[in-house]
Write a structure and sequence with these properties.
about 260 residues, alpha+beta, six-stranded antiparallel barrel, 7 strands, OBAP-like
């Protein structure tokens, strides 16, 4: 965990960044979904709801991260992922993942991020669902768009030793215009050469950044030792959900899934 003075320093940087930060509205959603255009009535209802309803959970999403995922067990299935996150506490972050950063963006899934301390406390089988962030940070492929370089560096110092558990529920990278199919467990890249150069180049151009420069800027961030159990796919242990068919229980009889 980062010392109290470092946390205070990061907080100051983040507050300053709010005054100058940008980095959104440059990545369109991958798909256009079917459905009628919004009516005037719908627009009025939206405006009223926006003014009158409390959105505390959404207002708490104060962190924007952009990185890349792949389907566990299928590395060729790669995509960019825009994370809008809430810092629940100093050891836990929760994120909604979108396929873009404009108003047309589709919610692709969720990611939970825990500190190394919390990851160590997880059951061994549970750890196999989680991926490390060490390479994403050190390689420069995980970014915090709009933050000043120094503030982003401090944030990455904290994230480098964390672990993420990610499920995508809408596979817009496969041109699916609706959230059909079952959720898929996602993983993060752990070595150079795994992530397609075209994805990095496209992201760099849209954000006006250099991933290579970010890598050099983070050279002084210590590389953590990856905890056993994470990145299980590297050892051939693939975990994915399955859709199964079960008969409905007979009326008047309980259904025990263990029998």
């Amino acid at each position: 965990m980062i010392e109290t003075n470092r946390n205070a320093s990061l907080s100051v940087w983040l507050l300053l960044a709010l005054l100058t930060a940008c980095g959104g509205k440059n990545t369109d959603s991958n798909v256009a979904s079917p459905g009628a255009e919004k009516s005037t009535k719908t627009g009025v209802l939206e405006t009223g709801a926006d003014l009158l309803q409390n959105k505390a959970p959404l207002n708490a999403m104060s962190m924007y991260l952009d990185g890349f995922h792949f389907y566990s067990g299928y590395m060729k299935g790669q995509m960019e992922a825009h994370h809008y996150c809430t810092q629940v506490n100093d050891d836990l972050v929760q994120c909604l993942i979108f396929d873009g950063n404009g108003k047309d963006a589709k919610i692709m899934g969720v990611e939970y991020i825990v500190s190394e301390r919390l990851f160590k406390s997880l059951p061994e089988e549970e750890k196999k669902l989680w991926h490390s962030h060490h390479h994403e940070v050190k390689s420069g492929t995980l970014i915090a768009p709009g933050l000043p370089l120094a503030a982003e560096h401090e944030l990455m110092e904290k994230l480098v030793s964390t672990y993420g558990k990610t499920y995508h529920t809408w596979h817009t990278d496969r041109d699916l215009t609706l959230p059909v199919g079952h959720p898929m467990l996602m993983m993060g890249f752990t070595k150079d050469g795994q992530l397609a150069d075209s994805l990095i180049a496209g992201r760099d151009k849209r954000f006006g950044i250099s991933t290579a420069e970010k890598r050099r800027n983070r050279a002084d961030i210590p590389m953590p030792k990856v905890q056993p159990g994470a990145n299980a796919w590297e050892k051939g242990e693939i975990r994915q959900l399955k859709v199964t068919e079960e008969s409905q229980p007979v009326a008047g009889h309980s259904h025990d899934p263990d029998n």
